[in-house]
Amino acid sequence: MNKTPHALLALAVVLAGCGRSGEEGSGSGPQPAVGSGGTAPVDGPWQDAARSAIEKGAAHLSGLSKGGKWVFKAEYGPDLGTTALAVRALLLSPGTDAGPLKPALEWLAANQQPDGGIYDPKMGVMTYVTASSVLAMKASGDAKYAPVMRRCADYLAKIQADEGEGFDQSSENYGGIGYGSKHQFTNMSTTQFAVEAADAAGLEKDRAFYKKALRFLSRSQNRSESNDLPAREVAGTRVVPGNDGGAFYRPGESKAGVKKLADGRTVFRSYGSMTYSLLKSYLLCDIDARDERVKAALSWMGENFELEWNPGMEHDTGNGPEARYQGLYYYYLSLGRCLAVAEAQNVKLPHVLKGWRERLARAIVKRQREDGAWVNHVPRWYEGNPTSSTSYALIALQECLGQD
Protein backbone atom coordinates (compact mmCIF):
# COMPACT_ATOMS: atom_id res chain seq x y z
CA MET A 1 0.00 0.00 0.00
CA ASN A 2 1.75 3.13 -1.20
CA LYS A 3 0.53 5.64 1.35
CA THR A 4 2.37 8.07 3.53
CA PRO A 5 2.38 7.22 7.26
CA HIS A 6 -0.18 9.97 7.75
CA ALA A 7 -2.65 8.05 5.61
CA LEU A 8 -2.51 5.18 8.08
CA LEU A 9 -4.50 7.26 10.52
CA ALA A 10 -7.75 6.91 8.67
CA LEU A 11 -7.17 3.21 8.26
CA ALA A 12 -7.69 2.86 11.98
CA VAL A 13 -11.38 3.44 11.39
CA VAL A 14 -12.26 -0.10 10.42
CA LEU A 15 -9.20 -2.14 9.51
CA ALA A 16 -9.32 -4.35 12.58
CA GLY A 17 -10.01 -7.87 11.47
CA CYS A 18 -10.61 -7.39 7.80
CA GLY A 19 -8.56 -4.85 5.93
CA ARG A 20 -4.97 -4.55 4.94
CA SER A 21 -2.61 -6.01 7.43
CA GLY A 22 -1.01 -3.08 9.26
CA GLU A 23 0.59 -4.08 12.54
CA GLU A 24 1.30 -0.67 14.01
CA GLY A 25 -0.39 0.92 16.99
CA SER A 26 -0.15 0.00 20.63
CA GLY A 27 -1.78 1.30 23.75
CA SER A 28 0.08 2.98 26.55
CA GLY A 29 1.26 0.55 29.17
CA PRO A 30 1.43 -3.24 28.94
CA GLN A 31 -1.16 -5.05 26.91
CA PRO A 32 -2.96 -7.65 29.04
CA ALA A 33 -3.57 -11.20 27.96
CA VAL A 34 -7.02 -11.84 26.59
CA GLY A 35 -9.49 -12.51 29.37
CA SER A 36 -7.72 -10.44 32.04
CA GLY A 37 -8.17 -7.07 33.60
CA GLY A 38 -11.95 -6.77 33.84
CA THR A 39 -12.78 -3.93 36.19
CA ALA A 40 -16.58 -3.87 35.94
CA PRO A 41 -18.48 -6.56 37.88
CA VAL A 42 -19.17 -9.65 35.80
CA ASP A 43 -21.39 -11.28 38.41
CA GLY A 44 -24.91 -10.11 39.07
CA PRO A 45 -26.98 -8.14 36.55
CA TRP A 46 -24.98 -8.07 33.33
CA GLN A 47 -26.57 -4.78 32.31
CA ASP A 48 -24.98 -3.10 35.34
CA ALA A 49 -21.61 -4.52 34.37
CA ALA A 50 -22.03 -3.29 30.81
CA ARG A 51 -23.08 0.21 31.87
CA SER A 52 -20.17 0.46 34.30
CA ALA A 53 -17.75 -0.65 31.58
CA ILE A 54 -19.21 1.83 29.10
CA GLU A 55 -18.89 4.69 31.58
CA LYS A 56 -15.26 3.89 32.29
CA GLY A 57 -14.46 3.21 28.64
CA ALA A 58 -16.10 6.43 27.48
CA ALA A 59 -14.10 8.40 30.05
CA HIS A 60 -10.88 6.87 28.74
CA LEU A 61 -11.81 7.48 25.12
CA SER A 62 -12.72 11.10 25.88
CA GLY A 63 -9.33 11.51 27.53
CA LEU A 64 -7.59 10.46 24.32
CA SER A 65 -9.00 13.50 22.54
CA LYS A 66 -6.58 16.19 21.46
CA GLY A 67 -8.41 19.51 21.36
CA GLY A 68 -11.74 17.84 20.65
CA LYS A 69 -10.36 15.62 17.88
CA TRP A 70 -8.73 12.22 17.87
CA VAL A 71 -5.45 11.06 16.39
CA PHE A 72 -4.05 7.67 15.52
CA LYS A 73 -0.58 8.68 16.62
CA ALA A 74 0.23 11.90 18.42
CA GLU A 75 2.92 12.92 15.95
CA TYR A 76 0.49 12.86 13.00
CA GLY A 77 -2.16 15.30 14.20
CA PRO A 78 -5.99 15.16 13.99
CA ASP A 79 -7.54 12.44 11.85
CA LEU A 80 -11.04 12.58 10.36
CA GLY A 81 -11.67 8.82 10.38
CA THR A 82 -10.46 8.17 13.91
CA THR A 83 -12.43 11.18 15.14
CA ALA A 84 -15.62 9.96 13.45
CA LEU A 85 -15.29 6.52 15.02
CA ALA A 86 -14.65 7.90 18.52
CA VAL A 87 -17.46 10.46 18.27
CA ARG A 88 -19.93 7.78 17.22
CA ALA A 89 -18.92 5.57 20.14
CA LEU A 90 -19.25 8.42 22.62
CA LEU A 91 -22.55 9.75 21.29
CA LEU A 92 -24.10 6.30 21.71
CA SER A 93 -22.80 5.98 25.28
CA PRO A 94 -25.45 6.61 27.96
CA GLY A 95 -24.95 9.83 29.85
CA THR A 96 -22.58 11.41 27.32
CA ASP A 97 -22.72 15.19 27.14
CA ALA A 98 -23.03 15.80 23.41
CA GLY A 99 -22.03 19.45 23.70
CA PRO A 100 -18.24 18.95 23.66
CA LEU A 101 -18.58 16.68 20.62
CA LYS A 102 -20.36 19.22 18.42
CA PRO A 103 -17.14 20.89 17.19
CA ALA A 104 -15.88 17.49 16.02
CA LEU A 105 -19.10 16.89 14.09
CA GLU A 106 -18.81 20.33 12.53
CA TRP A 107 -15.21 19.54 11.56
CA LEU A 108 -16.35 16.37 9.82
CA ALA A 109 -19.11 18.22 7.95
CA ALA A 110 -16.71 21.00 6.97
CA ASN A 111 -14.52 18.43 5.24
CA GLN A 112 -17.24 17.33 2.83
CA GLN A 113 -15.69 17.52 -0.62
CA PRO A 114 -17.38 18.74 -3.82
CA ASP A 115 -18.05 15.11 -4.81
CA GLY A 116 -19.99 14.56 -1.57
CA GLY A 117 -17.47 12.42 0.27
CA ILE A 118 -15.95 13.38 3.61
CA TYR A 119 -12.19 12.92 3.57
CA ASP A 120 -8.83 14.63 3.32
CA PRO A 121 -7.88 14.58 -0.39
CA LYS A 122 -4.24 13.99 0.57
CA MET A 123 -4.93 10.86 2.54
CA GLY A 124 -7.11 8.34 0.73
CA VAL A 125 -9.36 5.64 2.29
CA MET A 126 -12.30 7.87 1.48
CA THR A 127 -14.92 5.16 1.91
CA TYR A 128 -14.07 4.45 5.54
CA VAL A 129 -13.92 8.11 6.51
CA THR A 130 -17.14 9.00 4.69
CA ALA A 131 -19.08 6.04 6.08
CA SER A 132 -17.81 6.59 9.62
CA SER A 133 -18.71 10.27 9.43
CA VAL A 134 -22.26 9.41 8.37
CA LEU A 135 -22.64 6.99 11.27
CA ALA A 136 -21.32 9.59 13.71
CA MET A 137 -23.79 12.17 12.42
CA LYS A 138 -26.60 9.62 12.62
CA ALA A 139 -25.68 8.95 16.24
CA SER A 140 -25.94 12.67 17.00
CA GLY A 141 -29.64 12.67 16.10
CA ASP A 142 -29.24 16.20 14.75
CA ALA A 143 -31.42 16.74 11.68
CA LYS A 144 -29.11 19.51 10.42
CA TYR A 145 -26.73 16.82 9.18
CA ALA A 146 -29.34 15.06 7.02
CA PRO A 147 -28.33 16.88 3.79
CA VAL A 148 -24.65 16.20 4.50
CA MET A 149 -25.37 12.52 5.08
CA ARG A 150 -27.42 12.25 1.92
CA ARG A 151 -24.61 13.70 -0.19
CA CYS A 152 -22.31 11.15 1.41
CA ALA A 153 -24.67 8.33 0.44
CA ASP A 154 -24.78 9.55 -3.15
CA TYR A 155 -20.98 9.67 -3.14
CA LEU A 156 -20.72 6.08 -1.91
CA ALA A 157 -23.10 4.97 -4.66
CA LYS A 158 -21.04 6.86 -7.21
CA ILE A 159 -17.75 5.16 -6.28
CA GLN A 160 -19.30 1.69 -6.27
CA ALA A 161 -17.48 -0.64 -8.69
CA ASP A 162 -19.84 -0.86 -11.66
CA GLU A 163 -20.07 0.07 -15.31
CA GLY A 164 -19.32 3.70 -14.53
CA GLU A 165 -16.03 2.63 -12.97
CA GLY A 166 -15.17 0.33 -15.87
CA PHE A 167 -16.35 -2.96 -14.34
CA ASP A 168 -18.85 -5.28 -15.99
CA GLN A 169 -20.98 -7.78 -14.09
CA SER A 170 -18.51 -10.61 -14.63
CA SER A 171 -15.86 -8.81 -12.58
CA GLU A 172 -15.30 -10.02 -9.03
CA ASN A 173 -15.18 -6.35 -8.00
CA TYR A 174 -18.61 -5.56 -9.42
CA GLY A 175 -21.00 -4.13 -6.84
CA GLY A 176 -18.38 -3.78 -4.15
CA ILE A 177 -17.05 -0.56 -2.74
CA GLY A 178 -13.31 -0.15 -2.35
CA TYR A 179 -11.21 2.34 -0.45
CA GLY A 180 -12.27 5.14 -2.77
CA SER A 181 -9.14 5.46 -4.85
CA LYS A 182 -9.01 5.19 -8.62
CA HIS A 183 -7.64 1.67 -8.32
CA GLN A 184 -10.52 -0.19 -6.71
CA PHE A 185 -9.70 -2.77 -4.05
CA THR A 186 -13.20 -3.90 -3.19
CA ASN A 187 -13.74 -5.96 -0.07
CA MET A 188 -16.38 -6.93 2.43
CA SER A 189 -15.20 -4.50 5.09
CA THR A 190 -15.40 -1.32 3.01
CA THR A 191 -18.58 -2.57 1.35
CA GLN A 192 -20.44 -3.40 4.55
CA PHE A 193 -19.66 0.00 6.05
CA ALA A 194 -20.75 1.75 2.86
CA VAL A 195 -24.03 -0.19 2.86
CA GLU A 196 -24.70 0.67 6.51
CA ALA A 197 -23.91 4.33 5.94
CA ALA A 198 -26.16 4.49 2.86
CA ASP A 199 -28.99 2.96 4.87
CA ALA A 200 -28.38 5.36 7.78
CA ALA A 201 -28.44 8.31 5.38
CA GLY A 202 -31.80 7.23 3.97
CA LEU A 203 -30.73 6.08 0.51
CA GLU A 204 -33.90 4.59 -0.98
CA LYS A 205 -34.01 0.80 -1.13
CA ASP A 206 -35.01 0.82 -4.78
CA ARG A 207 -31.69 2.39 -5.74
CA ALA A 208 -29.48 0.20 -7.92
CA PHE A 209 -26.73 0.59 -5.32
CA TYR A 210 -28.22 -2.13 -3.13
CA LYS A 211 -28.88 -4.58 -5.97
CA LYS A 212 -25.33 -4.24 -7.20
CA ALA A 213 -23.98 -4.64 -3.68
CA LEU A 214 -25.89 -7.90 -3.36
CA ARG A 215 -23.98 -9.34 -6.30
CA PHE A 216 -20.69 -8.58 -4.58
CA LEU A 217 -21.91 -9.90 -1.24
CA SER A 218 -23.10 -13.16 -2.78
CA ARG A 219 -19.69 -13.65 -4.33
CA SER A 220 -18.04 -13.27 -0.93
CA GLN A 221 -20.10 -16.09 0.58
CA ASN A 222 -19.39 -19.80 0.62
CA ARG A 223 -22.61 -20.85 -1.07
CA SER A 224 -22.02 -22.26 -4.54
CA GLU A 225 -25.70 -21.97 -5.52
CA SER A 226 -25.48 -18.17 -5.40
CA ASN A 227 -21.76 -17.56 -5.78
CA ASP A 228 -21.39 -17.62 -9.56
CA LEU A 229 -17.69 -16.83 -9.82
CA PRO A 230 -15.57 -19.51 -11.45
CA ALA A 231 -12.70 -21.29 -9.75
CA ARG A 232 -9.44 -19.40 -9.53
CA GLU A 233 -5.81 -20.21 -8.93
CA VAL A 234 -4.43 -19.12 -5.56
CA ALA A 235 -0.76 -19.85 -4.97
CA GLY A 236 -0.98 -22.68 -7.47
CA THR A 237 -4.13 -24.19 -5.95
CA ARG A 238 -7.54 -24.30 -7.62
CA VAL A 239 -10.04 -22.70 -5.22
CA VAL A 240 -13.82 -22.96 -5.67
CA PRO A 241 -16.81 -21.56 -3.71
CA GLY A 242 -17.68 -23.68 -0.69
CA ASN A 243 -21.05 -24.37 0.89
CA ASP A 244 -20.78 -23.72 4.63
CA GLY A 245 -22.71 -20.42 4.29
CA GLY A 246 -20.03 -18.27 5.88
CA ALA A 247 -18.23 -15.33 4.32
CA PHE A 248 -14.69 -14.23 3.57
CA TYR A 249 -12.88 -10.96 2.88
CA ARG A 250 -13.50 -10.59 -0.84
CA PRO A 251 -14.04 -12.75 -3.92
CA GLY A 252 -10.66 -14.37 -4.33
CA GLU A 253 -9.31 -13.87 -0.80
CA SER A 254 -9.92 -14.91 2.80
CA LYS A 255 -7.86 -13.52 5.66
CA ALA A 256 -8.34 -16.95 7.27
CA GLY A 257 -6.78 -18.72 4.30
CA VAL A 258 -8.11 -21.75 2.45
CA LYS A 259 -9.02 -25.26 3.44
CA LYS A 260 -9.15 -28.59 1.64
CA LEU A 261 -12.42 -30.50 1.94
CA ALA A 262 -12.82 -34.25 2.26
CA ASP A 263 -13.90 -34.45 -1.37
CA GLY A 264 -10.62 -32.90 -2.50
CA ARG A 265 -11.93 -29.42 -3.28
CA THR A 266 -10.18 -26.36 -1.85
CA VAL A 267 -12.33 -23.44 -0.70
CA PHE A 268 -11.81 -20.07 0.96
CA ARG A 269 -12.22 -20.37 4.70
CA SER A 270 -15.15 -18.49 6.23
CA TYR A 271 -14.66 -16.47 9.41
CA GLY A 272 -16.71 -14.63 11.98
CA SER A 273 -16.24 -10.91 11.42
CA MET A 274 -16.98 -11.22 7.70
CA THR A 275 -19.96 -13.56 8.11
CA TYR A 276 -21.73 -11.21 10.52
CA SER A 277 -20.87 -8.30 8.24
CA LEU A 278 -22.37 -10.24 5.35
CA LEU A 279 -25.67 -10.97 7.09
CA LYS A 280 -26.04 -7.40 8.31
CA SER A 281 -25.44 -6.14 4.79
CA TYR A 282 -27.90 -8.60 3.27
CA LEU A 283 -30.61 -7.37 5.64
CA LEU A 284 -29.81 -3.70 5.04
CA CYS A 285 -30.02 -4.37 1.30
CA ASP A 286 -33.62 -5.40 1.99
CA ILE A 287 -33.28 -9.14 1.42
CA ASP A 288 -36.09 -11.22 2.88
CA ALA A 289 -35.09 -13.29 5.90
CA ARG A 290 -36.38 -16.37 4.07
CA ASP A 291 -33.78 -15.94 1.34
CA GLU A 292 -31.49 -18.98 1.11
CA ARG A 293 -28.39 -16.80 1.34
CA VAL A 294 -29.58 -15.45 4.69
CA LYS A 295 -30.41 -18.94 5.91
CA ALA A 296 -26.96 -20.17 4.92
CA ALA A 297 -25.22 -17.37 6.84
CA LEU A 298 -27.37 -18.05 9.91
CA SER A 299 -26.49 -21.73 9.68
CA TRP A 300 -22.77 -20.92 9.74
CA MET A 301 -23.31 -18.70 12.77
CA GLY A 302 -25.18 -21.46 14.56
CA GLU A 303 -22.40 -23.93 13.93
CA ASN A 304 -19.52 -21.59 14.71
CA PHE A 305 -20.72 -19.31 17.51
CA GLU A 306 -17.72 -18.25 19.57
CA LEU A 307 -16.95 -15.30 21.82
CA GLU A 308 -13.42 -16.06 23.00
CA TRP A 309 -11.90 -15.39 19.58
CA ASN A 310 -12.79 -14.49 16.00
CA PRO A 311 -14.03 -17.88 14.74
CA GLY A 312 -12.28 -19.15 11.65
CA MET A 313 -9.13 -17.17 12.36
CA GLU A 314 -7.81 -19.95 14.61
CA HIS A 315 -6.88 -21.80 11.44
CA ASP A 316 -4.52 -19.03 10.32
CA THR A 317 -1.42 -21.07 11.13
CA GLY A 318 0.83 -18.60 9.34
CA ASN A 319 0.46 -16.14 12.22
CA GLY A 320 0.96 -18.55 15.10
CA PRO A 321 -1.27 -19.80 17.92
CA GLU A 322 -2.52 -16.33 18.81
CA ALA A 323 -3.95 -15.81 15.31
CA ARG A 324 -7.44 -16.57 16.59
CA TYR A 325 -7.51 -13.19 18.35
CA GLN A 326 -6.87 -11.17 15.20
CA GLY A 327 -9.60 -8.59 14.73
CA LEU A 328 -11.38 -9.60 17.94
CA TYR A 329 -12.96 -6.21 18.67
CA TYR A 330 -13.99 -5.68 15.06
CA TYR A 331 -15.62 -9.11 15.36
CA TYR A 332 -17.49 -8.03 18.48
CA LEU A 333 -18.69 -4.89 16.71
CA SER A 334 -19.79 -6.88 13.64
CA LEU A 335 -21.58 -9.50 15.71
CA GLY A 336 -23.42 -7.03 17.92
CA ARG A 337 -24.48 -4.76 15.10
CA CYS A 338 -25.57 -7.66 12.89
CA LEU A 339 -27.67 -9.41 15.50
CA ALA A 340 -29.30 -6.15 16.59
CA VAL A 341 -30.32 -5.48 12.97
CA ALA A 342 -31.52 -9.08 12.60
CA GLU A 343 -33.69 -8.92 15.71
CA ALA A 344 -35.12 -5.56 14.63
CA GLN A 345 -36.22 -7.28 11.40
CA ASN A 346 -37.65 -10.26 13.31
CA VAL A 347 -35.11 -12.70 11.90
CA LYS A 348 -35.19 -16.01 13.75
CA LEU A 349 -31.70 -16.63 15.09
CA PRO A 350 -30.15 -20.06 15.69
CA HIS A 351 -30.86 -21.44 19.16
CA VAL A 352 -27.19 -21.30 20.15
CA LEU A 353 -27.34 -17.50 19.84
CA LYS A 354 -30.03 -17.26 22.50
CA GLY A 355 -29.02 -14.69 25.11
CA TRP A 356 -26.34 -13.26 22.84
CA ARG A 357 -26.60 -9.78 24.34
CA GLU A 358 -25.61 -10.91 27.83
CA ARG A 359 -22.98 -13.32 26.58
CA LEU A 360 -21.35 -10.76 24.30
CA ALA A 361 -21.44 -8.09 27.00
CA ARG A 362 -19.72 -10.36 29.51
CA ALA A 363 -17.05 -11.31 26.96
CA ILE A 364 -16.28 -7.65 26.34
CA VAL A 365 -16.45 -6.50 29.96
CA LYS A 366 -13.94 -9.08 31.17
CA ARG A 367 -11.38 -7.79 28.68
CA GLN A 368 -11.48 -4.16 29.80
CA ARG A 369 -8.19 -2.81 31.16
CA GLU A 370 -7.86 -1.11 34.52
CA ASP A 371 -7.63 2.30 32.81
CA GLY A 372 -10.96 1.74 31.04
CA ALA A 373 -9.57 0.99 27.59
CA TRP A 374 -9.77 -2.11 25.46
CA VAL A 375 -6.60 -3.13 23.62
CA ASN A 376 -6.04 -6.34 21.70
CA HIS A 377 -2.84 -8.11 22.75
CA VAL A 378 -2.62 -9.24 19.11
CA PRO A 379 -2.27 -5.82 17.46
CA ARG A 380 -2.77 -6.80 13.82
CA TRP A 381 -5.15 -4.50 11.92
CA TYR A 382 -4.49 -1.68 14.39
CA GLU A 383 -6.29 -3.27 17.34
CA GLY A 384 -3.27 -2.46 19.49
CA ASN A 385 -4.48 1.13 19.30
CA PRO A 386 -6.78 1.98 22.25
CA THR A 387 -8.88 4.49 20.29
CA SER A 388 -9.89 1.92 17.72
CA SER A 389 -10.45 -1.07 20.00
CA THR A 390 -12.16 0.97 22.71
CA SER A 391 -14.53 2.50 20.17
CA TYR A 392 -15.41 -0.93 18.75
CA ALA A 393 -16.00 -2.32 22.24
CA LEU A 394 -18.20 0.61 23.30
CA ILE A 395 -20.41 0.38 20.23
CA ALA A 396 -20.76 -3.38 20.65
CA LEU A 397 -21.71 -3.01 24.32
CA GLN A 398 -24.32 -0.43 23.39
CA GLU A 399 -25.83 -2.93 20.96
CA CYS A 400 -26.00 -5.42 23.84
CA LEU A 401 -28.02 -2.92 25.84
CA GLY A 402 -30.32 -2.32 22.89
CA GLN A 403 -29.20 1.24 22.24
CA ASP A 404 -28.77 2.62 18.72
Textual characterization of the structure:
With 404 residues, the chain is mostly helical. The chain has a domain at 5-228 and 350-400: Glycosyltransferase. It contains 13 helices and four strands. The protein has a four-stranded mixed β-sheet, with no helix packed on it. A hairpin with a 5-residue loop joins strand 3 (258-260) and strand 4 (266-268). 54% of the residues are buried. Mean pLDDT is 89; it is low at 1-43.
Largest beta sheet: strand ordering: 1-2-4-3
The tally of strands reads 4
Quaternary status: single chain
Strand content: under 5%
CATH 2nd-level architecture of the domain at 5-228 and 350-400: Alpha/alpha barrel
Distance linking N and C termini: 34 Å
Structural class: mainly alpha
Point out poorly predicted stretches: 1-43
**Radius of gyration computed on alpha carbons:** 20 Å
Number of helices: 13
Overall helicity: 40-55%
- Could you name the CATH topology of the domain at 5-228 and 350-400? Glycosyltransferase
Mean pLDDT: 89
Briefly, what CATH class of the domain at 5-228 and 350-400? Mainly Alpha
